[in-house]
Amino acid sequence: MIYPTRLAVLLAAAGAPLAFLLGAIAPELWLAGPAWVILIASLMLADSFAGGSRRRLEARVEAPAALAVGVPATVAVTAGFPRGARPSGVEAALLADARLGVEVRARAAALEDGTARLQFLASPERRGEGVISRLWVRWRGPLGLVWKQRVDPLDIPARVGADIEGVKTEAMRLFARDALFGIKAQMDVGEGSEFHALRDFQPGMDRRTVDWKQSARHTALLAKEFRTERNHQVILALDSGRVMCEPVAGAPRIDRAINASLLLAYVCLRTGDRAGLYAFDEKPRANSGAVAGIGGFPLLQRIAQRIDYSPEETNYTLGLTALSGSLQRRSMIVIFTDFADSTSAELMLETLGRLLRRHLVVFVVMRDAELEDLTDAEPQASEDVSRAVIAGHLLQAREAVIARLRRMGAHIVDAPIDNIGPSLLNTYLDIKRRDLL
Q: Residues with Cβ < 8 Å from 231, sequence gap 6 or more?
């Protein structure tokens, strides 16, 4: 495709006033207007033959095969002219599925050694399969009067999933050599309930750990050393209903819950516990069952990838009752959810009360920074006051539910959106250390 630039249009339009003026002065000069237009058209035709040829353009798009929600990535475009005339620079644009979050504005770059390299930022917002479907590349002729453009159809798949690399990076940080020594020593030995070994009593140790019978037998003061029990069962229950699928701070709540769940599941499997993933909205959607060993982590990844964005309201009674019926032993149940009204909150509390009779429940609360900003912002108009009052009412209702959950015996993880994973992990380690399971 070849079409005029803005410069060519302005030059052609500039001939009209000139032709009108000359025609008013000397009627026989009215042909100056058409002659001017013909001159501009001839220059445009010459400009279209000069510069780089569309057939000689070689363009290539390189995109990551897998992207993660909330993690920026780069899509690289290379456009060059290996032989023949070359323009000074090119512009390019991409068309991709909205879930990939690829920049829609065109990028420009100068040619270096006959090749231009452009980068487009991709900020995925939702999980799923995406495709980069089209590439536009255009450049000006030497005179700057025409654009030469080529459109290449593409079919580059790009899958958007959970931030597995972020989970692994965080887990590797926790299980680095120095961190592993400290965490394992704290979790395995010293504060559990399972007998591990006898050791010489040292100043500062709890005197209640002294084994008097063994001390008398060995004529030395010996103390019992305990370690934390393993093979506990941790179930990660994710609400995938309408409210949890709404975005907050650039990503849906459910995706942030999945990342935190996978981080905790990885740590559970590494430390000898069993982990399972469960998702529900109006009815149960996914249930991996409890898996053991680090080899079970890929299964949890696949289950997490299949959790879809649901427009349905969450049915806590059906979802949590079905989960309770599938558990054969006391478990630690981590619930990721959010509620939009007092009615759904009451139904959730009623069902959680039944779960708490047998299981240890950890309730994860994602702080809503937008609501907090609305309540803290200085009002400039009457609408701002209304928004602040409504936001304050919602926050008060949330705090009331959290207070009731604490009184019922649930453990609460209340943290900012970007700190849910580490806060949940600290709660898990604290529960293990206190042997509450």
A: 272, 273, 274, 292
pLDDT (tens digit per residue) in 304-344: 988 888 888 888 889 999 999 998 888 999 999 887 666 77
Give tens-digit pLDDT for 40-56. Answer: 888 888 888 887 788 88
Q: How far is CA 172 from the centre of its chain?
A: 19
Amino acid at 353: G
- DSSP state letters, 76-144: EEEEE-SSS---SEEEEEEEE-GGG-B--S-EEEE-BTTEEEEEEEE---S-EEEEEEEEEEEEE-TTS
Name the pTM for this structure.
0.71
- Nearest one of 281, 275, 277, 276 to 239, comparing CA atoms: 281
Measure Cα distances from 376 to 338, 381, 389 in Å.
Answer: 22, 14, 11
Residue 231 to residue 269: CA distance in whole angstroms: 9
| 3-class SS shares of the chain: helix, strand, coil, % to 5 | 45, 30, 30
Token duo for residue 71: 């993690």
CA–CA separation, 73 and 35 (whole Å):
53
SS (H, E, C) 296-351: HHHHHHHHHHCCCCCCCCCCHHHHHHHHHHHCCCCCEEEEECCCCCHHHHHHHHHH
Which pair of structure tokens corresponds to residue 392? Answer: 């304050």
Joined tokens for residue 36: 């001017």
Q: What are phi and psi of 23, to 5 degrees?
A: -65, -35
CB atoms within 10 A of CB 207: 8
Q: Cβ(75)–Cβ(120) under 8 Å? A: yes
C-alpha distances in Å from residue 430, one per residue of 167, 265, 413, 437 = 20, 16, 12, 11
For the CA atoms of 206, 209, 215, 221, the dihedral, rounded to the nearest 10 degrees, stands at -20
Q: Which two tokens stand for residue 177?
A: 């050599």
Name the nearest CA neighbour of 360 among 289, 430, 300.
430
